[in-house]
Write a structure and sequence with these properties.
The complex is a heterodimer of chains A (289) and B (371).
Chain A lengths: L19 H22 L1 E3 L5 E5 L2 H5 L3 H34 L2 H12 L6 H12 L4 H8 L13 H26 L2 H9 L4 H12 L1 H17 L2 H5 L8 H8 L6 H32 L1
Chain B lengths: L5 H17 L28 E7 L5 H11 L2 E7 L2 H10 L6 E2 L3 H9 L33 E7 L1 E6 L10 H4 L8 E3 L3 H12 L8 H15 L2 E4 L5 H5 L5 E5 H10 L3 E4 L8 E6 L7 H11 L2 H10 L7 H6 L2 H5 L6 H4 L14 H15 L1
Parallel strand pairs in B: 1-2, 1-3, 6-7, 6-8
Antiparallel strand pairs in B: 4-10, 5-8, 5-9
Helix pairs in contact in B: 6-7, 6-15, 7-15
Classes of the chains: A mainly alpha (289), B alpha/beta (371).
């Protein structure tokens, strides 16, 4: 059997220079700002909430406040459900795209990308028009006499969930597509030849082989959806604060930059831990592909 | 306060910044001779810079006003927007851009003044300040109007869709009644919400302490459960869309609803309310103070101020401009609630509460997340 991974030729001694712009970029715009963020978390604040360079543990201490712990748990829970839903809907699509005839693949992939041609906010407002009491969906439901009164859809937790799933579904489809495309069809056929039912072939062959894609997809949804605040504000009517809203508030009316920084730093550490865990498991393969 | 489409505003800032940078060279020098105008704004023209950086609320300064000013003076105005006083404060204090004019609300004027971040206006350059109505003077944040010129004022009041709500609503207690559960929109502003509870408890809007917040907590706990939408940017939208029938919202938004349909009646809460006033001020570090004063004086002209009222039906503090409005505009109960115009009545305005802001924010966050 042929080696599935082609050997790579090593770059010369100065090959690393090719990545230099990336390193500069990461250092200046990712690492440095995050270090500043962590530094701010240990600072004091003035009357206007701005950071004062004086050591203080007040902001860090606030992290343990039950109110904010509760909000964090709720955000994690909601993001978890959104991730599960995205995988549930995204996996079949990603898999189908990855296994579609080659000449169709890129065209089908464009269909997944089309929503990105419109601003995310505009698409969110479009959902609001569909979901509101006198919106299109309610009008249709009443016209077809399925319901007699408008159904409450907008400004509910369900609407927030819908918004999250809608926003991040393409990010689930793409990594799953990538791993489904590389899936060796011969292995699936072998499973059938050995008498596996479609379900067994899926669970024991396809699923493990596309696992890196699933892990990457889950991270792509879970991590950004925790920090998302626009959807909770617009589609949730600002009723249920998520951790993203709380952070945003600290830099606004809450007038507490150090606490906002502490929350941000806390999330950052959580994500680093999550990523480390996923990489240790089997995500490494996913990121290398 | 102001219609706050913060998210769109962010996009607008981008556009303005992009276009703002390109046209600089072509800008004609400010007309030294100026337009001889009765209000005397051109007198200071020779010293004015040719660029004016205006940092103001989104959807609050009509294009016609900016264009008119540029045409008359030759000064190019760059209008950058923000969606909250705090956003403006952070950007101003960060110091990246030297803004010439800002548009803070009263408590932010006070906060800025505490830190010496505002420049005193040269009274000789803003003679039109005389047009400001007497009842808009004497507030504690700037009693002599030495630092700022009132731009527009307003309050928070209750809007009722009288097609759907038949029972009379007189105050917060009636509005936050269990029978309107899930039919209420309120502005998403922690300090405002706390103030409403304070009003029903007989606590003044500026008496913000751990003790008074504890008293307000149970009241707000009951109220917030009933609310369907929290929206500061455009609270009228949920009313117009039929998602809610009762709103505790900015009076200017209520005035727009009333202009659209008389079924949206406006009630000034009987428990009490406060007046909020937005101003034009010149921050420390402004590069074009003379140009900024020219702009302030221009905006204070009755016919210019009227243009603002036409577009944004808040309470116009400019007494001369009010005379130019139509009877219908003046009769709009949300724009000109009689109780707010009566100087004899106790009218309070927000004071800067400093670090207590964090506790106010926490209280509301706590109650919302408990639902």
């Amino acid at each position: 059997m042929a080696d599935p991974t082609p050997r790579k030729r090593a770059l010369g001694p100065f090959g690393g220079l090719l990545a230099a712009p990336l390193f500069v970029w990461l250092l200046a715009l990712v690492v440095l700002p995050n270090l500043i963020l962590i530094g701010y978390a240990f600072c004091d604040r003035d009357d206007l909430g701005q950071v004062v360079p004086r050591f203080s543990l007040e902001a860090i201490g606030r992290l343990a406040d039950p109110t904010y712990v509760r909000i964090l748990l709720r955000s994690l829970w909601l993001s978890g459900i959104a991730t599960a839903a995205c995988l549930l809907f995204g996996y079949p699509v990603g898999y189908y795209l990855g296994r579609a005839p080659e000449r169709w693949r890129s065209k089908l992939l464009v269909l997944v990308m089309i929503p990105f041609w419109t601003s995310f906010l505009v698409r969110t407002y479009a959902w609001m028009i569909l979901l509101r009491s006198e919106g299109l969906i309610n009008a249709l439901l009443q016209y077809t006499r399925l319901t007699s009164a408008p159904v409450d859809m907008l400004y509910t937790e369900g609407a927030v969930l819908l918004g999250l799933v809608y926003a991040y579904l393409p990010f689930t489809i793409l990594p799953i597509y990538a791993s489904a495309e590389k899936l060796d069809g011969a292995l699936v056929e072998a499973a059938y030849d050995l008498g596996a039912s479609p379900w067994r072939a899926f669970v024991h062959v396809i699923l493990p082989l596309t696992r890196p894609g699933i892990v990457a997809a889950a991270l792509f949804v879970f991590i950004p959806s925790i920090g998302m605040f626009a959807i909770a504000d617009l589609m949730g009517g600002g009723r249920v604060p998520l951790v993203g809203n709380v952070i945003q508030n600290q830099f606004g009316q809450g007038r507490n930059w150090p606490f906002g920084a502490a929350l941000g730093a806390g999330l950052l550490l959580m994500f680093v831990a999550l990523l480390a865990w996923a990489l240790r498991k089997d995500g490494e393969e996913a990121l290398h592909r | 306060m102001v219609t706050r489409r913060s998210l769109f505003a962010a996009a607008c800032v981008w556009t303005l910044t992009l276009f703002g940078c390109s046209g600089d060279d072509k800008t004609p020098a400010p007309a030294a001779s100026g337009t001889p105008s009765a209000s005397g704004s051109a007198a200071a023209a020779p010293k004015a810079g040719k660029e004016l950086l205006l940092f103001a609320w989104s959807e609050y300064v009509p294009e016609s006003v900016i264009d008119g000013f540029s045409k008359e003076t030759g000064i190019t105005v760059h209008y950058e927007t923000y969606a909250s006083n705090e956003e403006m404060l952070s950007k101003l204090l960060a110091g990246g851009t030297a803004y010439d004019l800002i548009q803070p609300s009263e408590y932010t004027v006070e906060a800025l003044n505490k830190q010496n971040k505002l420049q005193k206006l040269d009274a000789a350059n803003v003679p039109n300040m005389k047009n400001i109505a007497p009842e808009m003077r004497g507030f504690p944040h700037d009693p002599e109007l030495a630092f700022c010129a009132p731009y527009m004022a307003g309050t928070v009041g209750i809007v009722v869709n009288t097609d759907k709500v038949k029972d009379p609503i007189k105050g917060y207690k009636d509005a936050f009644s269990p029978k309107y559960k899930n039919r209420i929109v309120v502005v998403n502003d922690a300090r405002e919400m706390v103030t409403w509870a304070f009003a029903t408890l007989g606590i003044g809007p500026n008496d913000v302490t751990a003790d008074t917040l504890a008293k307000a907590k149970p009241v707000l706990g009951e109220w917030l459960k009933l609310v369907k939408v929290f929206d500061s940017d455009s609270p009228k939208t949920a009313m117009l869309n039929g998602d809610v029938d009762v709103g505790v919202i900015w009076s200017g938004e209520a005035a727009k609803l009333y202009e659209q349909d008389k079924k949206y009646s406006f009630v000034l809460p009987e428990e009490g309310t406060h007046l909020s006033i937005d101003h034009l001020c010149i921050p420390a570090g402004a590069k074009n103070k003379t140009g900024a004063e020219m702009f302030i004086n221009y905006v204070l002209r009755p016919e210019i101020s009227k243009q603002i009222s036409d577009k944004f039906p808040y309470l116009n503090p400019n007494a001369e401009a009010r005379k130019l409005l139509t009877d219908a505009q003046r009769a709009n109960p949300a724009s000109y609630p009689p109780a707010l115009l009566d100087k004899a009545k106790a009218r309070e305005s927000f004071r800067d509460i400093g670090k207590m802001s964090t506790d106010v924010d926490k209280l509301i966050t706590d109650l919302k997340s408990a639902n």
